[in-house]
Amino acid sequence: MALHSRIGGRLGKYSDLIMAIAVLGVVVMLIVPLPEWLLDTCLVVNLAGAALIFLTTLYVQEPLQFSVFPSLLLIATLFRLSLNIAATKLILGSGSAGRVIEAFGNFVVGGDYVVGVVAFLILVIVQFVVITNGAGRVAEVAARFTLDAMPGKQMAIDADLNAGLITEEQAKERRKAIEEEADFYGAMDGASKFVRGDAIAAVLIIIINIVGGFLIGLRNGQGDVMTILRTYTLLTVGEGLVAQIPALFISTAAGILVTRTATQTHIGQDLFSQLFSRARPAWIVAGMLVTMALVPGFPIIQLLLLAAALGGIGYVVTQGERARTRRVETTPKRQPATEAPKGPEAVLPLLTVDTIELELGLGLLGLVDAAAGGDLVERINLIRRQTALELGIVLPSVRIRDNLQLKNEQYAIKIKGETVATGEVRPQYLLAMGADDLQQMESLGGIPTREPAFGLSAYWIPASRRDAAEMMGYTVVEPSAVVATHLTEVIKQHAADILTRQDVQTLLEHTKQQNAAVVQELVPDLMTVGEVQKVLQHLLRERIPIRDLGTILETLADYAPRTKDPDQLGELVRAALARTITRQYLSNNGTLYVMTLEPSLEGRLRESVQPTASGLQLAIDTAFASALLREIGAQAEQMAAMGYVPVILCSSQIRLPLRRLIERSLPSVACIAYNEVASGVPVEAVAVVSVPMFAGVSQAA
């Protein structure tokens, strides 16, 4: 193995140079006369190379494992034709052509030029009419069907990817294999024409050599007519045979390669395992041979020996079939359903939980059927790309499946096996959102509903009324877009739960390619992958993108020696990502509009911050918390009515505890600290949160 690696490495290092020299050498052979010893060497190389190519095709498990064959076929054909020309020069010029050609002319055909001509013509006919024609037709049909099947194969890969059956890397490999398969069969379709042309050229060359040699011999007075004819015919036939045998090897290899189907074994194993898989055909043929041996005139010994061999094969196969039958009969019957299956293997597949699942009612299956115009699978692919750009995480595959327990037009979104959101869409309608005019909707035949992702008022309208609804100012979307938007929002809400340690490890390895120093400094010397994961989850819970992982890791490397608390590290990282955080909440004019806390209220809240087992919390009583939430909710509604994103701006000491207080009741309200506002950004307070102090603040025990 080591020797194989060294040889392969050295040859691979100079492969381009070797190939260039070889092709140039072939071209030179067309021009420069070759001495006999060099021609002999080239003929032996041609024969050995053709045999090597032929045997290689027998051992490949699928055609793409020998994808270089079309190009190799062209080079081999050119090499063989150049040898024909070089041999022709020697035969016509000196009346000799080296030891290899003379051996084929004298020994192989017994010195009889008539036998040689017949053998040569048979070889050409077999190659031209049978093998080359068949291989060319198979390659042509395979190329056409491969191209026709490409769209369906691509769709199947996309479906498997979105169903979670394969990973993104596996999908890329399969797409690449499909492209290579189409290119291969297209190239083989063209390459088969080379073999066909080579067979025609061989016939023409032998005619030219015989006629030309005969005329030259007569002109030079090299003997009587029969001597001249015998000499040049034997040399020409020898040259034709020594060229056509390698050509037959390569044309046969082409036929085997294009008719080969993808399996896990080579053709020899497939041949014997399938040809002798049943005993009855072997017994019947053995009986036929014995019957033929009884007929006078047939060779008895050969027939009986072959019959005995086939009978032995039939006996061995029969014994194998009986052994398999006994194993089946002695296999214990299935145990009652109440008895637990033995071994963990029976239930292990049931323990796998998909990270993200989308379950559809039967009426929604058309949304994922591309043949019926469904584009939900394509939209989910876009969601994965969009999430990577917006949040900086790579989503796992979304498994799509039907669920008979759902209503016909209902869908459910699951995160790690648990349903986190449901919704209903009407696949034959469109969803119109915007102006809430009941009379207009009645004229359009609208059915009142709620947009599932954000709870907005909307209407289902017939697809034929789309243009009319858009003219009235409504935003109209397809049912698949509604499901995709809802899925996107759910993914953003649960991004922290979706991010696993393995995902973090993948992100670290990717970052290491551009910023190896910070990754090596941080992991594992300062923090573990799990600790980095907790910090990233801290950011994702508030929809802070982690795409700028380099800045995040550098901040962690700076502060991890002082603290390992994920909350503290997360807040420090937020300050480093001030530009990213600020950009999310800027208005169209570049101003950050916020609500602030009344100073005395902020002071009171700062005093109430208490460390707990679950992190920093506000130690305030229920009445005060309710009043605070009502006031923040009211101010958030006013900001939303003005077209601003509801954002609370407060001190860094209370930001995290305050966010934890409001995140369940007011998840859409953002909370940022003063040090998280990027420098140079204008800030305008449009609301002030104030709560009467009579609600009180509980004192620490």
Walk me through the structure.
The protein folds into five domains: 20-271, no CATH class; 276-325; 352-493, FHIPEP family, domain 1 (Glutaredoxin); 499-576, FHIPEP family, domain 3 (Helicase, Ruva Protein, domain 3, Orthogonal Bundle); 581-695, 3-Layer(aba) Sandwich (Rossmann fold). 61% of the residues lie in helices and 10% in strands. It contains 25 helices and 14 strands. The chain has a four-stranded mixed sheet with strand order 2-1-3-4, with helices on one face. Helix 5 crosses helix 8, helix 6 packs antiparallel against helix 7 and helix 18 runs parallel beside helix 20.
Task: Furnish the topology, listing elements before pairings.
Layout lengths: L1 H12 L1 H15 L6 H24 L9 H26 L4 H10 L4 H50 L5 H53 L4 H34 L8 H9 L3 H15 L6 H31 L25 E5 L15 H15 L7 E5 L7 E6 L2 E7 L4 E5 L4 H7 L2 E4 L6 E6 L3 H6 L3 E3 L1 H15 L1 H4 L2 H14 L1 H7 L6 H12 L8 H11 L6 H11 L1 H8 L6 E6 L1 H9 L1 E4 L2 E4 L3 H20 L5 E4 L1 H11 L7 E4 L9 E7 L12
Parallel strand pairs: 1-2, 9-12, 9-14, 12-13
Antiparallel strand pairs: 1-3, 3-4, 5-7, 5-8, 6-7, 10-11
Give descriptors for this structure.
elongated, about 700 residues, 14 strands, Glutaredoxin, four-stranded antiparallel beta sheet, alpha/beta, four-stranded mixed beta sheet, 5 domains, about 60% helix
